Amino acid sequence: MRQPSLTARRVAAVSVSLVLAAGAAACGPADNDAKSSGGDSTPHKGGTLTVLNANPQQDFDPARLYTSGGGNVPSLVFRTLTTRNREDGAAGAKVVPDLATDTGRPSKDATVWTYTLKKGLKYEDGTAITSADIKYGIERSFAPELSGGAPYLRDWLVGAADYQGPYKDKKGLAAIGTPDERTLVFHLNKPEGEFPYLATQTQFTPVPKAKDTGTKYEEHPVSSGPYKVVTNQNDGEHLVLERNTYWSASTDAERKAYPDRIDVKSGLDSSVINQRLSASQGADAAAVTTDTNLGPAELAKVTGDKELASRVGTGHFGYTNYIAFNPRVKPFDDVKVRQAISYAIDRSSVVNAAGGSALAESATTFLPNQKSFGYEPYDLFPAGATGNAAKAKELLKEAGHPNGLTVTLTHSNAKDFETSPEIATAVQDALKKAGITVKLQGLEENDYSDTVHSVKTEPGFFLAHWGADWPSGGPFLAPIFDGRQIVKDGANFNTGLLDDKSVNDEIDAINKLTDLDAAAKRWGALDKKIGEQALTVPLFHPVYKRLYGKDIKNVVISDWTGVLDISQVAVK
């Protein structure tokens, strides 16, 4: 899931993507049984689930989607080798088998991963799903005309760096072996203990070669999940899904598939979505949203209404909003200046600017405060709730700025309560108390993204944020702090331009671990080690508050996505 301009495709965020998206443990709806709403709490099959979204589900092709854990709507149609565990809170941050019998069997050095498919897997037309179909699905994701998915496979698979997909290269990828119809063997360039997490991405969806229609495949992708696409209008603006009668719950322990029909309507204004969910009239009584949060004003109204408050799902997604420094730009080349700003920050005012404590939690670590990331609590430059101006002034004096200094903070003009003017102003006010005059430079969203993601134009001091492609420290720390991931002529996310051999070596060492709990502890320790260099100032982690209709039952919100999982929802 990463910067929001990208996260719309990535996270779920997530897509995640993801996501998306979304640390304390996630929880169910506020003041409500996390499994239901209304009278009878037992979920039943049948009915139509309506999804009201702001953003269309564009590029509905498994090759082109960038999700976290397979996404929300996409995972109803696309099954993958592994998937996220569909449970509330921290338990939902685990990776579990999906099409495969397990989460993968690694070689001793984690450079070879072997998967066996479950028996009885079928597409919507009743034909069998084979290992060759998954291999082909991955291969077509390399085609330039189907770009957009997660980039890891190009880096991780042996010989994949220059592969152009099966339309141009009929030989395919030798790094993916299919010794029989139920077995896949992946050969990697280097040890990757987190390969099971990557296998949740939609690129691992089976695609029958005979049914591949290239760029038109998104109009009717062949379903391997509990629902099939019967309508896809205006590139995902209106999606209608109905049951895939060949899907079997006996092969799928994760998706409940309660509704008979799912009607996804997008392109709606966020205020309209929340108004409709609040009123909960007609079909909207059985409606949810997968991309629209309650804003501060809306949340205040909802909080004062007991019935509405009982229909708010609360969740956390692995996401950090922070200040980024470019140490190649003066005065941020001096660690004491960076430390002074770290001490001066008033996190209470920043949290208020982000919508208040109900929508944001203050952060002193770069990693989100969830176990799966390896969260280790630390506060290297304790500013308290409102900033430590005295300590900041002391450090500035040591750095040769006894009378303070003037700096420019770059931010986005987007009204996202993350890198927007509200947050920038809160930072400006806090630093003023420490003798630091902050001039604000607001850029339109596209200009902001282009400017801060280019090594050539990256400012010295700017607002940034990062979301998880999956709930682990790896995709959180490596893109931001691995020196080998500095991109000089493209989109660069290593904002501090850190190239520290000891950090790079530790990333490699952790990647060799297939014990994900052990790896998590190492990620947490690495986070603290990097934090000592004061290359970022963590500000806050967002909290997701989303309304759902009064007839919605079986609400599940995991720490993987931080939002309601529609594969679990019932409407009867």
From TrEMBL:
Q: SUPFAM superfamilies attached here?
A: Periplasmic binding protein-like II
Q: Which residues form the Solute-binding protein family domain?
A: 94-484
Presence of the UniProt keyword Transit peptide in the record: no
Name the PROSITE patterns for this protein. PROKAR_LIPOPROTEIN (PS51257)
- List the residue ranges of the region (Disordered): 29-48
List the CDD domains. Answer: PBP2_clavulanate_OppA2
| Residues spanning the signal sequence | 1-26
Q: Which UniProt keywords apply?
A: Signal
Against Pfam families, the record matches this protein to: SBP_bac_5
Name used for this protein in its record: ABC transporter substrate-binding protein
**What does the record give as the organism's lineage?**
Bacteria, Bacillati, Actinomycetota, Actinomycetes, Kitasatosporales
